[in-house]
Amino acid sequence: xxxxxxLAAAEAAxxxxxxxxxxxxxxxxxxxxxxxxYTLTAGRLWSLVAALLGLVxxxxxxLALARSAGRIGTGTGRRKPIVALAAGLAGAVIGGLVxxxxxxxxxxxxxxxxxxxxxxxxxxxxxxxxxxxxxSRRTG
Length: 140
Fold this sequence. Notes:
Blueprint: H1 3-15, H2 21-30, H3 42-68, H4 79-101, H5 112-139
Helix pairs in contact: 1-2, 3-4, 3-5, 4-5
Transmembrane segments: 45-70, 82-100, 112-134
Keywords: Membrane, Transmembrane, Transmembrane helix
InterPro entries: DUF6223
């Protein structure tokens, strides 16, 4: 289903042109959406959100780990490792839900590849956050 057909059907419905365009518009709206490699489906969107959460957790966990080692700044903060743990956990859980709910394999629009990426990145973020938290408890 192309965007042009959908817009034409919406325009015909809004303008009251219910002549010969109505059966074709109804046919276009009833067809299942063909998923190509550029369509942002719900599964792909959720896997992207999960991967971004995991990536934020990795960055914050890396900063917390570097800070606890004394390379960046001073002091013992526990906020960054906890945020990294939470972001990694959220990314891993959402990624796992995307993988569990995916209907098909890679390339079908279910977001299964992004879900697996989010799982891995979320676990890495949780590991970095855990190491940073352990170091902050030991030094503080």
